[in-house]
Amino acid sequence: MRAKSLAEFGLPVELAEAHAPVVLFDKVNLSFDEKVILRDVTFSVRAGHTKIFLGASGAGKSTILKLMLGLLKPDSGTIWVLGHRVDLMDEAQLMRVRHHMGMVFQEGALFDSFTVGENVGYKLYEETILPLDEVRRRVDEVLGFVGLDAHIDKLPSALSGGQRRRVAIARAMAARPTVLLYDEATTGLDPMTAMTVDAEVVKLRDLEQVTSILVTHQLRDAFYVATHEARRDAAGQIEIVEASEQKIEEADFVMIREGRVAFEGHASDLRSSNDPYLKEFLS
Asked: Which residue, 6, 44, 64, 74, is the most exposed by fewest CB within 10 angstroms?
């Protein structure tokens, strides 16, 4: 089973060139009444890479995700996602692009009255015409990927916090998205449980070639995702190891401060920065 392409949804595929960014913000500004949320925000995300947004609460990090999804429109500037100007799209057009995007929310946002399997397969049931047996096979596959296939018939209330987040990741990946957005996906979890969620982010990026965009204030999780990679050993088992230099360079940190991009660079650049604000944030 595969997700439909943008062309099959009636949208031209403009990302045929390998160097074209999956996401591009160009001088994006947004204000709510008199409050400025984003000021001249510019960045790009390449296919298969990771972009990690850091910053204090209220800095505008989650707003950036909403703009990518077209849930908000900028006051000025341009936003390209998967080769399309989402800031100019109507809701019907946005739905076609969103089909190729997945979102993992801070609280998981699972349906309490649905089983784990029904939660994971929800988008496939509602937005595709796939036969039920194919949906079930895909649900089994993604739950196996996150190590929760034995919980398929349970309700979310029977799971731990970390398991619910992993179900949310499985649901987001079920339709084989090109881009996955994570909004504070480990908030409220203890460090060991959070690491299991971080590992799923790494596995999806490296084994499923998913472009990853994370919003977090948890430095531990941000650096873990940026400095580890997933691979299969000789027996075909998945293992998480320290990332190669090349893989580390495929992860960028973006510090948002008072609505502006205050820093953009790799993990080593962030750690070695002498900027007083960055040093205080890292401490």
From this structure: 44
